[in-house]
């Protein structure tokens, strides 16, 4: 058995979920620059996530769910998951984004699991608070290590794919480190760099 871990925003999905939510709620200006700096590794991920989510306070939960279920997938997303599963990979998504999106697309893509964060709501309204499994800059690496121990899969049989600075921590636990249309901070740590926006390109680099 092998393990493939994909980031969600700008890797399986085109764009950033938080930016799409901010746009729908009319607070795009406040959020977009923070996202950009966080993905480039210029801001602490935890602090930037909390700050960005705070701008969503007052948004209707049903509106947030609708946005998250209508996100555009990256070219080749369905095909890469299918192909990896044919090659005995367990395929998992790690996201600093939100369950509203990842749990929905887990079913669409046929992923084995998704790990992400939860937007807190009360009486159907977002509170501006967030919590979950992927809150920190090193969360993905820690979760990957936990999964490897549970599934008895070693680094040699692990593929990690991402685009931003908060994906760096995964690379310590994967022999195949894929920077997909990525920020410079991640490219420096990768041993596979893909510039074409098509996830099927990964197949050229694996057995």
Taken as a percent bin, the fraction of beta residues is 15-25%
**Structural class determined from secondary elements:** alpha/beta
Shape assignment? globular
Quaternary structure of the protein: single chain
Which percent range fits the helix content? 25-40%
Low-confidence stretches: none
CATH superfamily (homologous) name: HAD superfamily/HAD-like
Which sequence of strands runs across the widest sheet?
A: 4-3-2-1-5-6-7
**Number of helices in the DSSP assignment:** 9
Annotation, overall tally of beta strands? 7
Give the termini distance in whole angstroms: 13 Å
Return the CATH topology. Rossmann fold
- Quickly count the domains: 1
Order of helices and strands: EHHHHHEHEEHEHEHE
User: Which CATH class is shown?
Assistant: Alpha Beta
Mean pLDDT figure: 96
What gyration radius follows from the Cα positions, in whole Å?
16 Å
Query: What about the largest sheet?
Result: 7 strands, mixed
Task: Describe the protein.
The chain is of the alpha/beta class and 207 residues long. The chain has one domain (2-205): 3-Layer(aba) Sandwich (Rossmann fold). The chain is 40% helix and 23% strand. It is built from 9 helices and 7 strands. It has helices spanning 17-25, 28-39, 45-54, 61-69, 77-86, 99-109, 139-151, 168-171, 184-187; strands at residues 2-7, 89-98, 113-122, 125-132, 158-162, 176-180, 192-194. Helix 8 (168-171) links the parallel strand 5 (158-162) and strand 6 (176-180). It starts with a strand and ends in a 13-residue tail after the last strand.
